[in-house]
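Lab manual, section 2.4: Encoding a predicted structure.

Procedure: take the sequence of the chain (452 residues), apply the prediction step described in section 2.3, and record the output as structure tokens. A sample record is shown.
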Amino acid sequence: MTKLFGHSVRSELLILYLVETLVCFATIYTVLVFGLARALPIDSGGALVAAAVLALSSGFVSSASGLYQPAIWHRFGRVMAGCLIAALLLLVVANLVLGILTPDQAGPARWRALAEVLVALFTATMLTHLTFAAAARGGLLRRRLAVLRGPEGQLRLERELAGRESRDEPFEIALAGPAAALGDPRFTAEALREGRIWGVIAADPALVSADRRLAFELAGLRVLSETEFLEQRLNRLDLSRLAPDWFATAAGLTYSRGEAALRRGFDIVASLGLLLVSSPLLLLAALAIKLDSRGPVFYRQERVGLGGRPFILIKFRSMVVDAEAAGRPIWAGTEDTRITRVGRVLRLFRIDEIPQAINVLKGDMAMIGPRPERPAFVEQLGRQIPHYGDRALVKPGITGWAQVSYPYGASVEDARMKLAYDLYYVKNRSLFLDLLILVATVRVVLFQEGSR
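Recorded output:
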């Protein structure tokens, strides 16, 4: 695991991104300079620029295609489908780049070049990801841990990993013992390094003295508490161990006026762009809603925003009129009969969410943040789940870390799990994490993950 701007990223995914970038760069440059595409009037400098742009874009496009999810690495068909989608998306970028570099060139030569680029991109992406998938299946990417237990005995992470044979699990426990085990020769820095141990996980940081910690770190071993390890591995907070004033030291809540202005500027530009680009789709959706069932096109409902302040949310109506005739809020179910035929399609592709861009323009919401919830649910869940009100420390968003990390929730336990992701975002919020969420949102929409 590697920390980038406060967010923990699996190290093998960073290596995969670097390898994919280099392979795509070499492949595209070779095609443009030595392949059929050399018929285009593009010099080596132009080919260098085109290859660099496509290579740098490859990792983001592959991530949007779901290829950076280790859970799919053992599903050959899913990997191949993701590679094809990634290649097609990169082809759009290639067409734009080649159009800029060779504006006067069109016709058969241009199409032959794009066809060759498509084949090259698909091959490069496929070989890179299949190689990493094979390495993961063979256990080559797995890291070994040494665990120091406290007085309570076995750690939670031990129970989670014990006997687990998941092919996408990046860690395994190689050595475990009580705090007294630090006197055992097997727990010396030299022995752990020889045993290819990645890190030492302690129930309590106080179990490892400053001198011993220094020796471990000098040997290249990471030393983490169980809470730190689980947060970095799962990218969510452990709510049961969260201090009442945890947010006082949250880096995601401390930012300059410049960053605040940049965020607001991004929200305005992105929401306007979203409305303009999707305007034909929005008109079709509005017409379909009107023809499908009686009632208004838009659905307005009170939600809770920044600091607990209420605002009126705007969405496309996806349910029948008076869907809550009983007078009490009801979560949407898997086969909810209140959802209209058009509404089901809108929800599947998240089209019903697009009008929330109006709320972003008004300043009630941001593009990225926790899902805006209804006051009745906030009150109910606030009584049942500690720290639930802490979601209001940032503006709610159209998409967010919980939305792309966990499927739609319709229970208190689902709300608890999504809160763990929401508060992770609040704690580690950064422009880098926002970028990852935007890329992941494309994946969620493309593959209809968690829609209901």
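Check your result against the sample. The chain has a mean pLDDT of 86.
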